[in-house]
Amino acid sequence: MEQVNNGENGVIGVCRRKKKDKDPVVFYADHLVMKGQTVNYADVETISLYASTMKYGILCANFSGWIKFKLRDGKKLKWKVGAVSFAGLGSIKLKKELFGDMYEACLPTVISTRAAGYLAEINNGGTVTIGSISVNANSVAGKAGLKKTEVPMTQVGGADIGSCNICIYGTDMQRTVINPMPSTIDNAVCLIPIIRALAARNQAQ
To answer: pLDDT of 43-69, one tens digit each?
Structure first.
């Protein structure tokens, strides 16, 4: 993401789909502008994303990455990048970097804003279920292998994304304690700031 000085216009970053993108996504403190549309972070109902590199033989490869937003009024927006390479020639490396920039810009803004709603429920004593994973202030429930499991928050270190999955890690941040969830599931990516916040709170106690 192109870092931008806040200044008077309030822009905090710009994400492009190509080097000379004439219509980049522009991030502000409480909204983004994408494809000419202003999207308030608070108006986003679901977020999903995907990024994968497929190899064909030893010479060809294809990268595809996208992030989707569904707004509370039913409108949908999709940001995507893609590239094909042959014998090492092509723009896959650049497209991966641009996708990474977009994800890193979304995480502390639109994703964290949506996750804040779930955290409010949890802080009020509730349990939030996203896909196959349920979270409350004391534990995370899901599956480990083929068996259902419930992991105390004292044994959870954090969460991150890897291989197009949302991974919840133990306190060593190496071993997953719950089966990874595909990031294509609506709001699965919100588990990252949720788990991070709960784990940090528990570790601070």
So the answer is: 999 999 999 988 887 788 999 999 999
